What does this fold into?
Amino acid sequence: MLSKPLTSYYCFLNATKALLTFRKVQYNLQHGVSGESIAGRVNIQNERISIHPRGVLSGLSSYLRESITAPKESYTLKDVLYNLEYIHRAYNMTYSNQPELYIPVEDIRFVHDKERKIGWLEAVLEPHYSSQTTITKLEGYSLDNYYSNSNFYVIRRNKTFIWEAPRNAPTAVSVESFKRYYYKNRRNLRYIFSPNKLWYIKRSNLTNGLINKSTLTLTFAAMHRLSEMSRYDPNTLDKHLSNSAGWLLSEFITKSAYQFIDMISSEITGDDFRVTGFRT
It folds into this structure.
C-alpha cells in the first residue's frame, strides 16, 4: 500500500497524456499539480493540493472544460476525497458529521415535449431516496408530475433546452441548445465503475467542502499528493494509513485505478465499458 500511489500516479499520468494526445489537446509537460503538508498532526486535512494553470493536469482540465484560477487553486486532501463518488460511502463512514454529497439515481435520460418543442433531463430516484427531503437537497430539480410517483419518484431538471426535430431531424439550433444543456448538466452526474449501472447526482447547494471539478481531475490530483509522500516521505504516508482515515485512503488507492482508467478509456473511445461475466 505504501508503494501503490507512486506506480498508480504514473499510470494516471501516462493515461492522461494518451487522452490529450489522441484528442489533440496541447499541454505543458509539467505535472501541473503540487502538494505540501501543513505543520501539525498527521491528518488529511493538513495535506494541501495545488492545481496549476500549466501542465498535464491543466491540459486535462481544459479538455473537460474546467477553468483554473491563476496563480493556482489549493484544496485539502480531505475535501478532494469528499468529492469522489466511488469512495463516498467510505468517506461518510469515516466522517459521519458531513452531509451526503451524492444522491443515487436510475434511468437517467433526456426527454422532450413535441408540442412545446423543448426537452429536459429526468431521472428515477431509488425508492429509499424517494422523498421531498431528497428533492430539497437537489437544487434545480423538482418532482415530474407526469408520472404517478407512487413506488418511486421521477425527478426532472427545471431548466429545459430547445428541441425541434421535424421528421426526427433536429434543427441546428436544437443541436447547439442540447450541447450546451448537456455539458452543463453532465458536470453533476457521476457514475461508479461497477458490474451494475451506478449513477449519482452531485449536490450543488452545500457550502463546505464542495469542489466544482470532475472526478478525473480530483483523482489525478489526490494520487499525485499520495505519490509524493510515497516517494519522498513514506513514513508520513504510513502514519496516514494507520490513523482514522487509513481505511478511506486504502479505498481510494485501491479503487481509483479502475475508475480512472475506465473514465479515460471512455473519453478516448466514446464507448461505455462494463465488467464482464455479469448478466444485465
Summary: Strands lie at 33-37, 47-51, 73-76, 102-113, 118-125, 141-143, 154-157, 161-162, 189-192, 198-202.
